[in-house]
Specification:
The protein is mostly helical and 455 residues long. 71% of the residues lie in helices and 0% in strands. The two termini are 28 Å apart.
């Protein structure tokens, strides 16, 4: 916390230390001005609302979009005062627009596929199967954790946690202790599973699309990610009640027509995204959009040729409509707010304070700790825009720490915040905090494992 205070203080109190960097657009070098400090305060206030979303029920996209608009208005004024041409200002602004557009389209396709699979009962069939199998609580603890770990690698950590969270709630409805520990387990598994695959977490996707690591490089983080999950899970396992839930007479849920085909198309679309990047040297989102086009063509056949009488017709545009627009718009606000602060000069100042002052390894470990307090998306976006000269080992390290660091607090990741809302007060900030020491042990163990395996 002391280091965090020093970093924040340096942003607000240090004079104009930031000089135009070596990045393509440079920066204004106006971190010590009143407007510059005001922009930082605007961002901190907006993010305060994001962190209290659980209590205020204000969607997280609203404050950051407003903050982004205010920050860029002040950036425009500062640029005019500094004699920066309109063309240069637009070039820096459009750089942020390009970053956001690529990630937004990629995520929109992934969310549409997940919604389509949910609509066709893929995940409900899995939940039904687990409930009917009558596993013991300890067996369910292991099964749900492992499923979440691997599911989050392709479906993103938030979606995986929510889907498997429904299973934990269904089988543990009479045992609050199991739900509480089970949800902590899901948060750790979801964040760890999302760290070793570009599709598993927005931060991992950002590093891949920025070109700091190739697609298959991220799988070097599989063993460290597994260790990050396994260490705290091993401690929590013995706290899970060693009993069986009450028997249930729930009937099996059948997947709808086309469910398996859509799952296969999703795998094919992932292959397209990788191929467009690796072989055609085009942005991965273009491969994802091509896959969306294929899904749209198949959805037309599903709605007309293969439609089962009596079932609701499958509408692909309804699945696009059901995407997590709050998350997508939140990401817009973060990209432009952090991008505006970076253009003023704060990212170079922060880079000097952390990476030059503490060293790459220490700074990257600190990034993970910060992501438990502040969402990992703005933290990682800031790191990516610092123009750091790091090797692959260090980029994989910061990918790992930013991905799994949020597990240390329930509010440190989208998965934790969402599960707190889903649990009906059975999983809380303090029930998670009880396990923070062993989660931190897993965090340290994963970093050490990364050093042993990839160092």
């Amino acid at each position: 916390m002391l280091r965090l205070f020093i970093i924040l203080a340096s942003l607000l109190l240090l004079p104009d230390l930031a000089i135009a960097g070596e990045d393509k657009f440079g920066n204004l070098g106006l971190t010590g001005t009143e407007r510059g400090v005001y922009c930082v305060l605007i961002f901190l206030v907006a993010y305060g609302f994001v962190m209290t979303e659980e209590f205020t029920h204000m969607r997280k996209s609203k404050p950051v979009i407003l903050a982004a608009g205010i920050i860029w208005a002040h950036v425009a004024i500062l640029a005019a005062q500094a004699g920066i041409s309109t063309e240069q200002l637009h070039e820096a602004f459009e750089h942020n627009l390009k970053e956001y557009g690529a990630l937004m389209l990629f995520l929109l396709v992934a969310m549409t596929y997940i919604n389509s699979m949910a609509k066709l009962n893929v995940f409900e069939a899995l939940r039904s199967w687990l409930v009917r199998k009558q596993f013991g609580y300890r067996q369910l603890f292991v099964i749900t954790g492992v499923i979440t770990f691997f599911l989050s690698a392709v479906a993103d950590n938030l979606t995986a946690a929510l889907l498997v969270g429904a299973v934990v709630l269904a089988v543990g409805k009479d045992n609050e202790k199991f739900i509480s520990i089970g949800f902590v387990n899901l948060v750790i598994a979801a964040n760890a599973g999302g760290a070793f695959c570009p599709f598993g977490d927005i931060t991992t996707l950002m590093v891949w699309q920025a070109g700091y690591a190739e697609f298959f490089d991220f799988f070097k983080l599989f063993i460290p990610s597994l260790v990050n999950y396994a260490v705290p899970a091993a401690f929590m396992y013995f706290a899970v009640p060693d009993v069986h839930p009450e028997a249930t007479n729930e009937e099996a849920v059948q997947m709808k027509k086309g469910a398996i085909e859509v799952c296969l198309l999703f795998v094919f679309t992932i292959g397209l995204a990788v191929s467009f990047k690796q072989f055609l040297h085009l942005p991965p989102f273009m491969g994802m959009m091509t896959g969306l086009g294929i899904l749209m063509a198949y959805s037309y056949a599903l709605k007309t040729v293969y439609h089962v009488k009596g079932e609701e017709k499958f509408d692909i545009f309804q699945q696009v409509h059901n995407a997590e627009w709050d998350t997508l718009l939140f990401f817009f606000g973060v990209v432009f707010a952090v991008g505006g602060l970076g253009y003023i000069g704060y990212l170079e100042l922060l880079s000097g304070t952390m990476y030059d002052g503490l060293g790459h390894t220490t700074a990257n470990i600190l990034v993970g700790i910060l992501s438990a307090i502040v969402d990992n998306i703005p933290v990682m976006f800031a790191v990516l825009n610092m123009n750091l000269n790091m090797d692959l080992y260090q980029w994989l390290l910061v990918t790992l720490t930013a991905g799994v660091g949020g597990s240390m607090l329930s509010v440190g990741s989208a998965a934790g915040v969402a599960l707190m809302g889903q649990s009906n007060h059975k999983y809380t900030f303090f029930s998670h905090l009880k396990w923070t020491p062993v989660i931190a042990l897993g965090y340290a163990a994963s970093i050490f494992t990364h050093y042993l395996v990839n160092g």
